[in-house]
Amino acid sequence: MLTDTHGRTATDLRVSLTDRCNLRCTYCMPAEGLRWLPKPELLTDDEIVRMVSIAVTELGVTEVRFTGGEPLLRPGLVGIVERCAALGPRPRLSLTTNGIGLARTAKALRTAGLDRVNVSLDTLDPEVFRTLTRRDRHHDVLAGLAAARAAGLTPVKVNTVLMRGVNDGEAAGLLGLCLQEGYEQRFIEQMPLDAQHGWQRTDMVTAAEILERLAARFTLTPETPAERGSAPAERWLVDGGPGRVGVIASVTRPFCRTCDRTRLTADGQVRDCLFAREESDLRAVLRAGATDREIADRWRTAMRGKKAGSGLDDPAFLQPQRPMSAIGG
To answer: Considering all CA atoms of the chain, what is the largest pairwise distance in Å, rounded to the nearest integer?
Structure first.
C-alpha cells in the first residue's frame, strides 16, 4: 500500500496523459501557451498502462482519474481506458476534461470502460467564456456535457472556478443549470497553480462566499463527515435533494489529513501532493528495465515522505515550479 508517515493511504491515482491543452484559461496559462513537453519525454501508452497496472495490482489503488492538460488530446486515450478497465481488480475510471471533443468521444469512452467524467465550465455566458479561455468554444462544452450524460458517464460533474469581478456572480445560475440538467456542480477555490505565478489570495472567491451566494437562492443541507469520507468536496443537499452541490476549499478549508491521492505526471514523475515542489522519477527506472516490484517499491518510498499538509498557510509557501497543466488535477 502507498502509506505515508502520517497514517494516510493513497488509493486514488491521478494520471496526467498530456500537458497540452486547447484552451488558454487566464488562471492557468498565458495567451501564447507554454512550452510543451517533448514527445520522447512523455510516457507511451504501454508505459501508462503498465504504471496503472502496478498501482492497482501492487499498491492497492482502486480509483484512477485521467487528467491533463486536456486528456482528450491524447490520441490513444480510448485504448488506454479499455486496457485499464481490463485490469483485475478493476479500478473505477474517471476523466477530468474541458469538454471540448467530448461530444464525439463520450460514447467510445463509455464503451471502453470509463465510468464518469468531470467537465470544467466556469460560466454560462459565451462572451465571458471567450474572455476566460481565449477561445470561442462554449457551445462545444455544453454539447460535451450532454453527450456524456447520454452515454451514461454519470454522475456528470461540473467543475467551476469563480474569479472575483469576472464570473463570481454566476454561482447560483450555474448550480441552477446543473440541477435542471441532472449534473453535479462542484465549485473549486482558485489555487496557486498558474503558470504566471500571479495568484493572489485576495482575488480568490472563498468557499464561505460561494455558500453565501448559493444560500440566497437555495436551501443547503450539509452532508455528514462520514458521508464525505476522503472526498475533496464538502457537499450539501440542495432544497432537500436529490440534487447536490460540492465545494472544494483547498485553500481556506484544506482536507490534507484525509488525502488519499497519488499523482503521476505525463512524463512519469510521481508527486505526493498537488502543491509539492519535489518529484520522484519513475520513468527513468521503468525505461532502465526495472521490474514491477522494483517500481512499486520506488513508488512506496516516494509516497512515504508525504508532508502533513500543503503548506498554503505558511508565509514561506512557494508555488510548485510546474503549473496545473503539467501536474494534472
So the answer is: 59
Contact 26, 132 (CB under 8 A): yes
Question: Is the peptide bond prior to 242 cis by the omega test (within 30 degrees of 0)?
Answer: yes
| Cα distance between residue 161 and residue 191, in whole Å | 9
CATH code of residue 26? 3.20.20.70
The count of domains in the chain is 1
Q: How far apart are CA 220 and CA 201, in angstroms?
A: 26
Question: Once rounded to an integer, what is the mean pLDDT over residues 265-290?
Answer: 92
Containing structural domain, residue 245 = 2-327
The answer to whether residue 306 scores a pLDDT higher than 70 is yes
In DSSP terms, 246 is beta-bridged to: 186, 235
Phi, psi for 263 (deg, rounded to 5): -125, 140
Which letter, b or e, does each residue of 77-95 get, where b requires 16 or more Cβ atoms within 10 Å of its Cβ?
bbebbbbbbebeeebebbb
Amino acid at 282: L
Q: Which residues pair with 118 in a beta bridge?
A: 96, 157
On the question of pLDDT at 27 being above 90, the answer is: no
Which residues are CB-contacts of 151 (< 8 A; sequence separation ≥ 6)? 106, 107, 109, 110
Residue 219 in this model has a pLDDT that exceeds 90 = yes
- What is the residue whose three cell numbers read 505526471? 265
User: 146 pLDDT band (50/70/90 cuts)?
Assistant: very high
- pLDDT at 5 > cutoff 90: yes
Peptide bond into 155 cis (omega under 30): yes
Measured CA to CA, the distance from residue 287 to residue 175 in angstroms comes to 46
Is residue 47 over pLDDT 70?
Answer: yes
Supply the pLDDT for residue 112.
98
Least confident residue range of 23-32, 110-119, 129-138: 23-32
Give the C-alpha separation, 285 to 269, whole Å.
11
